[in-house]
Amino acid sequence: MNKALISGRIRPFPRDSHLAMPLPYQVMRLFTSPEGHLVEISCLRTQAGTPEPTHEWLWVTEQSVTTLRPRHSAGETQQVWVFREARLQLDGQHAELAWTNGQQLSLTTSPALPSEQRQLIHNHLS
Predict the structure, then answer these.
(1) What CATH number does the domain containing 33 carry?
(2) Rounded distance, CA 4 to CA 27, Å?
(3) Which DSSP string do the residues of 3-15 spell out, in sequence order?
(4) Can you count the helices (H) and strands (E) in the chain?
(5) Predicted local confidence at residue 25, as pLDDT
(6) I want to staple 28 with a disulfide (CB 3.0 to 4.6 A). Which of 40, 50, 66, 116 is the partner?
(7) Could you count the other beta carbons within 10 Å of the beta carbon of residue 27?
(8) What is the structure's pLDDT at 54?
(9) In this structure, what is the dihedral angle of CA atoms 101, 105, 109, 110, given to the nearest 10 degrees?
């Protein structure tokens, strides 16, 4: 009987292997405040029945990611987005996010998302 030999060597797992995987999303807009990051993404994987990528808004903190669920209303424009969790007012390089609990955050555009938050988003979308 021929049995395959099993090597006793343990190979280290590459720490940055997640960076080599293609990201399932592209960041479209990014706003930052001391409380967290507001990210508009385009999901590159199309869903069944939709020929184009879907867009999502995410609220990302140091430990969590929350998908903001759009509430379609007559007051929604390119500058105003209404979600179940919050209302977003865009104004060029600035944004105001008003949560339903009354908390209001002022955000400014940011050039890049920290790697820890990118990993949180990747995990959230997987």
Answers:
(1) 2.40.128
(2) 46
(3) -PPPP---PPPPT
(4) 2, 8
(5) 84
(6) 40
(7) 17
(8) 81
(9) -90
DSSP sequence for 91-111: ETTEEEEEETTS-EEEEEE-S
Question: For the chain, how many structural domains are there in total?
Answer: 1
Angle, CA of 119, 17 and 45, to the nearest 5° = 60
Compare 20 and 101 and report the one with higher pLDDT: 101
Whether residue 51 lies inside any domain: the answer is yes
Cα-to-chain-centroid distance, residue 99? 18
Is 113 part of any domain?
A: yes
pLDDT in tens, 58-115: 999 999 999 999 987 655 567 899 999 999 999 999 999 999 999 999 999 999 999 9
Task: Tell me if 2 is assigned to some domain.
Answer: no
Calculate the average pLDDT of the chain.
82
Question: So what's the pLDDT on residue 50?
Answer: 58
CA Rg, the chain, in Å? 19
DSSP β-bridge partners for residue 84: none
Give the helix ranges, DSSP H, for 15-114: 17-20
